[in-house]
Write a structure and sequence with these properties.
The protein has helices at 10-18, 172-176, 224-234; strands at residues 7-8, 25-34, 44-47, 55-57, 63-69, 72-76, 83-86, 93-98, 105-107, 120-122, 125-128, 134-136, 145-151, 154-160, 180-187, 192-199, 205-211, 216-222, 238-239. With 247 residues, the chain is mainly beta. Strand 16 and strand 17 (205-211) form a beta hairpin.
């Protein structure tokens, strides 16, 4: 999956999240700091399982407050490796530290000049596949556009849209049901987000790569061979370019 490093939450940390609340709790506050303890302004904080009630940006002193929070909280700021941490159900105030490390950020190339005739599919985010890609055009201003690639009995899905909006993180259940979980950030010309992967207790794998809003590519419940096949497609990802894309 490229040379960038995935950061693991580790089994001990995950056990906290796995035993955490089954429904979002009201109110979570805290601070986002750099590795030396200095406050970071304008960091995006996203809590899982709460939709946009789990969004906040940090103030000049690094503080934030979200209306609701599930079992995980992420923090992202350009120039820093992102953080994704489990939150104990008894926690109401947390501290998140970001390190100025480029090794956990995947630099995604621009889609400018990419040709759809050469196996590329998608819209503002594009992937490349040699197999047939099924497409589901949306209807209306806020409809989804989706593409799927099948391998054996499993599938990879790319969704560009508003109706199936994800609010910056994969589903709460997908993460809390995982026996292991790791992540890294990604940065394109105009977009950025998280690249998160894990597996369940039976070794079935999943991966989710999403923008901070709206667009995500993912697979769930894949065996080792299927995961490797889908990972190669995800790792071809480009972002941006929009109307300049070649047809």
């Amino acid at each position: 999956m490229g040379s960038m490093v995935f950061r693991s939450l580790g089994m001990a940390m995950l056990s906290t999240a796995l035993l955490a609340q089954t429904a979002p709790k009201e109110g979570l506050s805290g601070r986002v700091l750099d590795a030396d303890g200095n406050p970071l302004e304008d960091a995006l904080v996203i809590a899982s399982g709460a939709g946009y009630r789990g969004w906040a940006e940090t103030a000049a002193d690094g503080t934030f407050e979200v209306e609701e929070a599930g079992s995980f909280v992420s923090a992202q700021l350009e120039g820093y490796a992102p953080a994704l941490i489990p939150v104990d159900e008894d926690s109401s105030v947390i501290e998140i530290r970001l390190s100025a490390s480029e090794h956990s950020v995947w630099k995604v190339p621009s889609c400018k000049g990419v040709s759809r005739a050469k196996g590329w599919f998608g819209d503002e985010t594009m992937l490349r596949a040699t197999d047939t890609v099924a497409e589901g055009p949306g209807v209306g201003e806020h409809a989804d556009l989706w593409w799927t690639v099948r391998f054996r009995e499993q599938r990879l899905t790319l969704v560009n849209g508003i109706a199936n909006i994800h609010a910056g993180l994969p589903s709460e259940k997908l993460m809390t049901d995982s026996a292991d979980l790791s992540y890294r950030g990604w940065q394109g010309d105009y977009n950025s987000g998280l690249d998160i992967r894990g597996s369940d207790s039976e070794g079935r794998r999943w991966r989710w790569v999403g923008h901070q809003i709206g667009t995500a590519v993912s697979y769930v419940g894949a065996d080792q061979d299927s995961a490797a096949y889908f990972d190669a497609i995800i790792d071809s990802m480009c972002s941006g370019g929009g109307p300049e894309l070649d047809e």
